[in-house]
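Student: Hello, beginner here. Can you help me understand the protein record under this note? Any guidance would be welcome.
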Amino acid sequence: MDFEKVIAPISWETIPPEFIASVIAMLAIIIISIVIYFKVKKYDPLDKPKGFIHIVEIVIEFADKQVSDLMGPAFKNYGGYVITIGLYILFGFIVGMIGIPNFLQVSANGEPIPNPFTNLSMPLSIALITFALTHFTAMKYKKWKYFERYIEPIPVFLPINLITMWSNVLSLTLRLFGNALAGYCIITLIYVGLGTAIPPEGSLTGLVITPFIAPLAHLYFDLFDGLIQLAVFAMLTMINISNEYISKEDILLAKKEKEKLKELKKKRKLEKVSLGIKK
């Protein structure tokens, strides 16, 4: 068998442009992180915050507050993850809005690099990270009881439970993918429509209208929609992870309830035995 006919070799030209957009978004986050690192090293905590550092403090305080309110004090270190996911989604939409020419691939012919989330694999990747964190949290706090969810209410439901465990992944992935793809299609239709239905040849109508309509469409479908998807994805991530948390107090209460049930069962057995002896 010739495996080259079955599995196509991966090359730079076959990589989807959405992957390049994703790399650009991640590079932007890395550069900002490096800048913050060196800024903070020179920053005097006794001075009044201003400029870039002041903005960073506001973002971090807001993220920590949201994590504290939605997840509780047990997840106080998750603010960094939420900020990173949020920036990745926001920068991904901004890359699609800017329309950076793709000169890195010859086959692209300089076409604008699209929003990374218009490719299903990109939103799926961050949804899988959230999925992994959710189940890691569940195993960390619930220990062996974590596996009980797959045989509830009875072991016969094991195949169904194994399928439904992926529902959150599909929800996060398809929501982000659907909104990004819908915005991309609408903006493309606007450009195509203004270029064909109102052609600039022989008239300046198309050239005059396009600069007014296109920016508004980009602001709504790229920037505003990106902020909404950022908020929704981050909130669902925090809720899904925090739902798997069990505090020490809850564990103690569960143990006490089990002990009470055992005592009740023993009392009922003793009552039945005593009734049998009397008869």
